[in-house]
Amino acid sequence: MKLIADFIEANLDALVRRFAEAARGLESTQGLKPSEVISTLPEYLHAVAAICRDGATPEWLETRTRLEEAHINLRLRVGATQEDATDEYTLLGRLIPQLWEDLQPQRKPTAVGIQCLFQQLEEAMDHVVVLFSGYSLEDRQREKRFLRQMDALAPRWLEPRADPQGPLKPLVELIVQALEATGAELFLVDAGGRGLVPVAHTEYLSPAPGRRVDAQGPSFLGRVARSEEPLVLAQARGLEDATREGLHAPGWSTLLGLRLWPHGDLMGVLCVGFAEARPVPPQTKRFLETLVEYLSGILDRALLMGRLREANARLEASETRYRLASQAAADTVWDWNLLTQEVSWSGETRKLLGFAPDEMGPLADWWVSRIHPEDRERVARGIHAAIQGTQARWQDEYRFLNRQGGVMRVLDSGVILRDAQGRGVRMVGAMQDVTSRWEAENGHERLLREARTARVQADTELSQLHALLRQAPVALAIFRGPAHVVVLANDRVCQLWGRASEQVLGRSVLEALPEVEGQGIRELLDGVLTTGTPYVGHELHVRLARAQGGALEDAYFNLIYQPLRQAEVGIEGILAVASDVTEAVRARQRVEGLAATLRISEERQRLALDAADMGSWDIEPATGRATWDARFRSMLGLPAEGEVTLDEAMQFVFEEDRRQVERAMEEASRPEGSGEYASEFRVRLPLEGQPVRWISGRGHFHFGPDGRPVRFVGTGLDVTERKLAEEAARQRAEFEQYLVGIVSHDLRNPLSAITLGTSSLLRRDDLNERATKAVLRIQSAAERAVRMIRDLLDFTQARLGGGLPVHCQDLELGALVHQVVEEVRMTVPERVLQTSLPAKVIRGCWDPDRVTQVLTNLLGNALKYSPEDSPVAVRLREAPGSVLLEIHNAGAPIAPDLLPRIFQPMQRGVPGMDAATRSVGLGLFIVRTIVQAHGGTIDVTSTPEKGTTFTVRLPHADAKQAPGA
After folding, report:
1. pLDDT, tens only, 406-450
2. Quick one: which H or E segment has residue 49?
3. What sequence ranges are listed for the domain PAS (predicted)?
């Protein structure tokens, strides 16, 4: 350290002169005499040189402290701020190294000497903080100790709808201990952003129900919510109720409150109470500000992680429902990008159409070419009319040519997604094979015609049935809104219901027909309105009083419920079309010939179940006798032959699941229920060593005239593979959450310890040059790991949280670019950074922290991938409607095959580079995400002749006030 001491003393006059010239631009020296600007500087530099040469002896330390106090007191007298005084020591720290730049290497100070010099300047700045604020080193150590304890108590996540008292009460109690207070209470804003709700109190386990405080009201808590500084209520006892509104602290005499204000938005209020009346010193207020700011960060992170967990769960459930629905329906699901015309097809394509997904053309033209020529023009015209119009859905039935050239009939439905201008940008739909249904319907009509021709003379009842069907009245009505109020009803509706027009119009359906309550009509209407799916019911059975107050009669209707949307027809409700087929049903029930048609229909159903790999059952609930097809017997492990009752079959179901299956059947078989049965259960096959099998059962109970169940039919599907996939997906999701926890908390703490440890080691005098370099390498590696963690957290937020949040505010972009470049230049003094800024001030609404992150990442890339003797240029200029920020460097260009994916995660510009400078490959992905969040774009050009240039284009919107400012 002798070199640094000799250097300072040899250049003492030059240092004082340079400081006096450079300090003229500082606010702290305005109006001072030249002698006052340098004040005690020569003596101070002499003392610093002596400490570096002889060590920190008590005499020299006392001299240095006396000179620092004299200098700082002079600045206090002329009205300088704490930042002004520390800026002077920072300036001195820059001037001294500038003097030895031209010295020969052997004459330059060593790393140990430089560390000694900078340690003296850092301690001087600490002295400034103590004298200006009264906040001593012991106070800061105590503050750090409590902040570390808050880190240890911080919850990893807070569920949005869970009670936060348990995880938050220890944090509030720790703040009370830190401030030596009597107690405290934490309030958070409600969903509306105006009310304050208590969530944690040091004196009780759970907040009293119903407490809520208006954040804009006149109470003490309301004033705290609107104040940027801590507020004190010196005498809290005996105040009016309006002032104490929301507080539950009768034993507190003095109140100290501060709002939680992360990201410029009100999060809540912390109120600390003291039992005795007392003044609150500035140190306590500052300590509270530090603790509350840290608490805000903890709560913000925990709530964000809670929302991420909830979003992940919803996403996983949505994806599972989509996959199961696709598999259960045996549909081909397609996704059509209307901007690029690219179409992707699901894995069910091979089963339905005979094509593997990779065999199908990537564009929509391939699908059009496979439509039957007679249907092609009609289908293409209809789907394009739907896309170019305002419709939300499209559906058509047409013929399609499969892989073998055969004709199949498909029902194709799609949902159109539109942008803010109403333009169709994406369409997602499903194609279903309805060939069997179409053939069955046409075959059914043919059979009816044959039966009618054969029995026209002999079966008068069948003739009467057809006559009744031809003459059946059709009723039409419109029900408005969730209450299903009748706003339109023709005469046939009144005839069907046995009501006068004035007893129907303006009333809800259940007011006009109170006797149908509990018969499933309300559920049908609610389902159609909420899901938007039409309901078609053939021979819907209800018990209806044809005259008001009369006896209930069995009635049967053919019924269609069609949802109406406000955006499409100007009304939110349901269109109902019905015809009374009661007499037709009764007549048909007496016609024996229709039994043959029923058997044919059942046989076709059996064939359809075989094609879908499903089993079926038919049970008489009164006797327990059952018919099981061969496939369901195999699924359940039943004997292949012989009669098996329902009770005997239930013995093959796992005991843990048996009660659940029985309960589902009991619910479905109740006369007032819908009759629909659904349950998933496990079965154990009779042979040893066979795995457990999962069965998904769906069925329906049919009821007799007396309301008792007379028949229970249903189907079963083996869903073992789906259950195994769900379990694997659940374990994967839990692992991802655990990994995020490690990155956000468990890794950051040890890295903080490493950083603090290296900083402490670098202040020691007994480190030789080799040890100092080793510690500096450790410190650099830890800082790089912290940057990697930050990138990983930003990546997780971008992928799971739907993008990175930006908080725009009025910003002078040129000043920000200049500041960031200067900060980077201090970290790499050996490199040349060139800036080109416009003379005109560029203002706009951008997020300063995120723009700084973009520029820092791009500058870091440019320095990393360019020769050390080449400059890196930063240019800022205006363009029509936007501003352009360009970062250019020379050197080897980015490989052409890498350019299209340079902004994707885990991509690096130069493969195989030095491990010491390698990152996780997320920097450019995060840069693009931040730019896109501002509504901008980023491009890159890279050639051997012109080098590499990244161009960021940000919209040049008018400056606006940031939220909460």
Report:
1. 888 988 888 888 888 889 999 988 888 888 778 766 765 565 565
2. helix 41-54
3. 318-390, 461-532
User: d(Cα 54, Cα 60) in Å, to the nearest integer?
Assistant: 9
Q: Can you name the CATH fold of 141-309?
A: Beta-Lactamase (3.30.450)
Task: Select from 644, 686, 723 the least CA-distant residue to 327.
Answer: 723
Residue 626: which H helix or E strand, with range? strand 626-628
pLDDT band at 458 (very low <50, low <70, confident <90, very high): very low
User: Mean pLDDT across the stretch 172-190?
Assistant: 91
Work out whether strand 343-345 and strand 231-233 pair parallel, antiparallel, or are unpaired: unpaired
Contacts of 536 (CB under 8 A, 6+ apart): 559, 560, 561
Alpha helices, DSSP H only, in 330-434? Answer: 349-353, 364-369, 373-388
Higher pLDDT, 908 or 837: 837
- Look up residue 714 and give its amino acid: G
**pLDDT tens-digit profile of 258-282?**
999 887 889 999 999 988 877 777 7
Per-residue pLDDT band at 188 (split at 50, 70, 90): very high
**3-state DSSP of 819-850:** HHHHHHHHHCCCCCEEEECCCCCCEEEECHHH
* CATH code of the region 477-580: 3.30.450.20
The distance between the two most distant Cα atoms of the chain, rounded to a whole number of Å, is 132
Name the architecture of domain 612-721: 2-Layer Sandwich (3.30)
Can you give the length of the chain in residues? 965
Q: How far apart are CA 407 and CA 404, in angstroms?
A: 9
Question: What is the topology classification, in CATH, of domain 2-133?
Answer: Globin-like (1.10.490)
Write down the residue that tokens 């119903």 correspond to.
Answer: 210
- Which tokens sit at 28? 């702290």
Alpha helices, H only, 828-949? 848-864, 923-933
| CA dist., res. 636 & res. 695, Å (int) | 8
- How many other C-beta atoms lie within 10 A of the C-beta of residue 923? 27
Cα–Cα separations (whole angstroms), residue 236 to 220, 252, 255, 391, 397? 10, 7, 7, 62, 75
- What Å distances lie between residue 388 and 344, 383, 384, 646, CA to CA? 21, 9, 6, 55
The DSSP letter of residue 653 is: B
d(C-alpha 545, C-alpha 542), whole Å = 10
Number of other CB atoms surrounding residue 359 within 10 Å: 13
User: For residues 376 and 370, what is the distance between their CA atoms, to the nearest angstrom?
Assistant: 9
Give the N- to C-terminal CA distance of the chain in Å, as an integer.
50
Domain 804-955: give its CATH superfamily: Histidine kinase-like ATPase, C-terminal domain (3.30.565.10)
From 936, 743, 946, select the one nearest 854 (Cα to Cα). 936
User: Residue 564 belongs to what H/E stretch?
Assistant: strand 553-564
Cβ proximity of 886 and 949 under 8 Å: yes
pTM over 0.90: no
Q: What is the pLDDT of residue 612?
A: 52
Contacts with 875 (C-beta within 8 Å, 6 or more apart), sequence order: 835, 836, 884, 885, 886, 888
Helix residue ranges per DSSP H, 354-434: 364-369, 373-388
* DSSP notation for 639-663: -SSS---HHHHHTTB-HHHHHHHHH
